[in-house]
Amino acid sequence: xxxxxxxxxxxxxxxxxxxxxxxxxxxxxxxxxxxxxxxxxxxxxxxxxxxxxxxxxxxxxxxxxxxxxxxxxxxxxxxxxxxxxxxxxxxxxxxxxxxxxxxxxxxxxxxxxxxxxxxxxxxxxxxxxxxxxxxxxxxxxxxxxxxxxxxxxxxxxxxxxxxxxxxxxxxxxxxxxxxxxxxxxxxxxxxxxx
Length: 194
Fold this sequence. Notes:
By secondary structure, this protein is of the alpha+beta class. It contains four helices and twelve strands; from the N terminus they run ββββββααββββααββ. It has helices at residues 50-71, 77-92, 137-147, 154-171, and strands at residues 3-9, 12-18, 21-23, 26-29, 35-39, 42-48, 100-108, 113-119, 125-127, 130-134, 179-185, 188-192. α3 (137-147) runs antiparallel to α4.
């Protein structure tokens, strides 16, 4: 019953994810942070099997950090997304593939541009202006399609995100209670209150 949303605007990417960790009908935690800051200008929202998600997020974080140490520069969002997609595609051919869906939001400081990538557990990747994963995506994608504005300010983007969260709370049978929201822009990644 996981839900995550992300959208781009004028100079930023907002990523939101519910804080519930559950398996089948059992709720294990209500304060799980499913958005990882994998580099100063890169956020990753993940959902899937509980063990896989955390392990894969840490694997990505460590490998992007290793790249930075070896080469003295960080990967741009498009290159990081391609590397993550390849890692998921390679894991499909292993004995224990990762079952992780994710959205990667980043701010490319070299061209001053926000980017959002939607990646699923099969290694499918595409750059999108907005995206969603989980059961909440059935309700949120139509709202994002109608109200998303690529030139929106941060406050307008947060208002659109709030609409999505309210709609999921109203219409989804087992709706998540709390969400974590993080933003990445030219100043880096940070958590904000909604």
